[in-house]
Automatic annotation (TrEMBL), chains A, B, C, D:
Location relative to the cell: Cytoplasm
GO molecular function annotations of the record: pyroglutamyl-peptidase activity
Name of this chain's protein: Pyroglutamyl-peptidase I
Principal EC category: hydrolase
Length: 214, 214, 214, 214
């Protein structure tokens, strides 16, 4: 069964938010490789905005991550069989990064669209946080004009139907939340940059990555 | 904002399950009057199946009620301002009724359609249980060939967006669950009745009631 | 590890509520046998009040059951390996019984003692409901002056420590809740019976049963 | 009603863990002042270990915080009426600190003592995180030999009794968890320091702070 994150991103690709020149990439669910693939995609497409997504199985709503921490600490293995416990993602990297997404504007826009969303202060210590930290570190060290962050998507109804009493969200709803978030983040980016970049075109490039498990 | 139950039923009416001759009625959210209106509708349309629906705000999935108890016990008032505490719905009525819906078949069918659903053993002690008990009592005392039961629908995403960390379900998903449930219940009804009713037409009449708050 | 119900009852036995002549019995966690053992104990000790207890693992508070239904429907087997699906507890018995405990008085007294408690409208469809129904049926058919009901006890902290993010309650707290419940129920019983039974002694006999799994 | 954190700390003070020379201070629930009072107490008593505690109302278990972030972002005001939104705790301070408590050893010890506990990756963005960050910043910048962290305590049963369906923990249980945590942290500190500090006495000084609301 497809992850909820992958299902939602496919619907966004099929019907992107207006005014966004959207590209996507599937990141391997492998420590290290995920960030390498993410960096390669950023270099290749030079986006203004990166929205990484992952599955947040027990969460009832869209959660936009505010913080990513420099820590891999997982009970299970990644898709290549690697186990990481109490390991920094970037040795000598800072303890944490705040997202560069305008999260309050994004969450408010999603709620106004009639979709439940909140800010989250932890993305866990597995691949989701790994990608969130990796993205923030790339922005801080290599791509200072880029903005980006990580969004958790609840289970799909089909995933919840196989479990006991878990909340879920239709992929169409989650996809609409991602569209609204991208639009809000691009607006914020333009609001913020226009004084500096008078004359900039309005065709901002946005970009979604999604973590997948094999 | 419309109740999740009303939204879902409207979508079922707009696109009914195949082979079902569907009628609907909105029941007043008033003790006593709700059951009177339900009885009038049953008399008027002579359905084979009645599926009553209501909003189950904190529930993450479709819940099909198995039991209705002879008790009104509410903190708040109904839409006519009536307050009922520790009051039997039908004086001298039995303590409880089991539903006449084939609930296991219905829940399995909904889950197989990729929508989370479970059996519930309490519909509470407010209007939802009131209608569930009233329907079961009408079946037991006046309409012995009728089958029916009560289904709780989670909040819509828009309702959840106004609250904190509540689970929700898209109305399109809830509506599909109701279609699947009606189809499964009508199939069961035919399976059950065919030996007895050889020659009966296949156009079973089904019927949805929904509780609404003003 | 002892069940939370057994731990709490042992503490009540060690320090019973004042004025209560308390007896206890451990019921086998076996369909049918549990009720037989319960009946034998009632015949042997002639109590005024029976409070049956069981473990309600996912519940955060003391829950006093209001309703017991005539249904065994379990996924797992009982301690004798019996599996029951969609089976009445008492063939031709009523669909349900309301408890004869003064549940609102009991819940209010527990809350006033600073312990979280609520009324519950379902004891499930496994041994807890089986015993609750069996007790109510014995009262209705053989022991009309007896009062009794069923109380669910949350996990102990030690049980929760072995699981993920489950609520728990210290056995000392649960035991105090049972003492307060017994006292409130006996007071109610005296209030109710005194006009009829002028001259009755004040040493009401109360009685706890507890379901145990091997 | 006393906060659960204050109740638990009082019990620890009344019966400290063996071998710990324990001191306590109540921190004002005021942004800035809380950290000032904490610093003053550290200067005055020169502890080896500081365990700050606060109330985590909706949590079912003892949660030991792993991360504190440089952010005050509260809907409500503190006890002096200050409101802080999107404000750094320490301007130019790092985004976050990891705790210097041996959290896995502490959580394992609490669980082995039969009390539910987990690691938490967010202390929120109100006073609890404020104190956790302030403590970590003091350790990083002024008291490099000190260790410390923050622990969230669930509601007491009495607090949960006034709310709906909230988990709780008896103060005696929470106090025992704090004793076990202090003992484990001091052992870890000795294990870690002994090679360096051969001949050090065994009377490590530990120390509890607790946030209180007026």
């Amino acid at each position: 069964m497809l992850s909820s994150s992958l299902e939602a991103v496919r619907l966004v690709v099929a019907e992107p938010p207006p005014g966004a020149d959207l590209d996507t990439v599937e990141l391997p669910c492998v420590f290290g490789d995920a960030i390498t693939a993410l960096r390669r995609a950023i270099v290749g497409t030079e986006p203004d905005l990166v929205v990484a997504t992952g599955q947040g199985g027990s969460r009832p709503d869209i959660t936009v991550e505010r913080v990513a921490i420099n820590l891999d600490d997982a009970i299970g293995a990644d898709n290549a069989g690697n186990q990481r416990t109490d390991t920094p993602i970037v040795p000598d990297g800072p303890t944490a990064y705040f997202t560069t997404l305008p999260i309050k504007r994004c969450v408010a826009a999603i709620q106004e669209a009639g979709i439940p969303a909140t800010i989250s202060h932890t993305a866990g210590t597995f691949l989701c946080n790994h990608i969130a930290y990796g993205l923030a570190h790339l922005i801080a060290t290599e791509f200072p004009r880029l903005r980006g962050g990580f969004v958790h998507i609840p289970f799909t109804p089909a995933q919840a139907a196989e479990r006991e009493k878990r909340p879920s969200m239709a992929s169409a709803t989650a996809a609409e939340a991602l569209r609204v978030l991208i639009t809000a983040a691009l607006e914020d980016l333009r609001d913020d940059r226009l004084p500096v970049e008078a004359g900039a075109g309005n065709g901002s490039k946005s970009w979604l990555s999604r973590k997948i498990r094999k």
